[in-house]
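**User:** Hello, beginner here. Are you able to go through the protein record under this note? It all follows right here:
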Amino acid sequence: MKTAIWLYLFMFVAFFDLHAQYPILSPFAVSLGAAPSFIGLILGLYSITHLPGNLLAGIGVDRYGSKVFISSSLIAGGVLLLLQAKVADPWQLLVIRSVSGFVLAFLSPACMALLAKLARDRVHQSKLMSGNGLVHTLASVVSPAAGAYLVAKIGFSTSFTVLGWGLLITGILSIFGIRDVRLPADGSLLPAAGHGHHKGHSSGKGGAPAKTDPVGQPTGLPWLFFVLPMAISCSQGILYFELPLLNHHNHGPVSASALTGSVLNSGILFSLVSLGALLSLSMVFLNRISPLVRTMAGCLMLAAAFFAMAVRAPVSLYVLLFFIGMAKGVIFPAIASLLAASTNATRYGRAYSILSIAYSLGSFIGPVAAGQWRGAVSPYYIAFFVLMAGLCFLPLNRIHWQNAKLEPPGL
């Protein structure tokens, strides 16, 4: 448990630094002379350069453990933020953000894999994943407003310098505070709560459990499952692209001067989303509900909110953003729990690497599509349709879900 606490602490600082950049990156790019389409490219390339990092992380975490990748990713990310403070044109920002996307791609798979290994059973695993979401959300509640406040007081360059040093120091401290967890020799999956580990039923070739395993452990998720995480991150990429370009309730484009003047307001809007997620994550009873049910319900909530924004429903923007945050607080821990419960423990690194790849692809597609088409159609329509398309893939795997026995006990 001590390792989990240290991990949560370092993740809080890391997420704080990263989320503090959300409301200021687009205005910073505008101040350098970037057009909206180029801003979308900057945000999208940060995500697409995650892919090679995710692929390497999946193999490396399973082979060498999580600690080395967590520490090196944080340190490298801090150095790149210090360099980002010195950029003078949009192309330099594009290069720095692209490299940042690669080095920070190792962080999420390594952290998620380590948390999954720390669990005693599936319910405990679900609680650890919710704890990760809670730490993530707590950091993102205050960090967007804090980042915008820093820019308002000390400017873009000094703000990036402060954030860079914070990330760098966190990475150095993680070397001493994080301890890797060794797996059982058979790499068996966790039992449901109330069940012991069943000896004599070792995994077969490739790490899959034997057919006689009484726990009924699944051997993995079908590839179509990862379409939904990609759709979710695509919608989030669209939101993170659009919010800094909004002037409160104004859904149209704004001038560069108005955009720079509304940085603080954008930070408050990002924090409002995080407050909604914090409310959902505080509902600990949700951990007793099937992760599949939570995933589907959260995605329907998210799609409904984007549809309301697309049609400009007579609902306050603050209410819609808070509702989006609540949906996120339901979805992300549920997907992480679903993946952990369906994966052999020796392959957690690869599993969360693939999940990160799906998120990265969606995060690339979202802002690029929004930047290219926002003059022709509301990007929120795009977010709505990709979410509904992603949900359509889940019923195709219904037999797999029934056989996997993923529901927590007592349901």
Confidence is low (pLDDT under 50) at residues 185-189, 191-219, 247-261, 397-411. The chain has 17 helices and no strands.
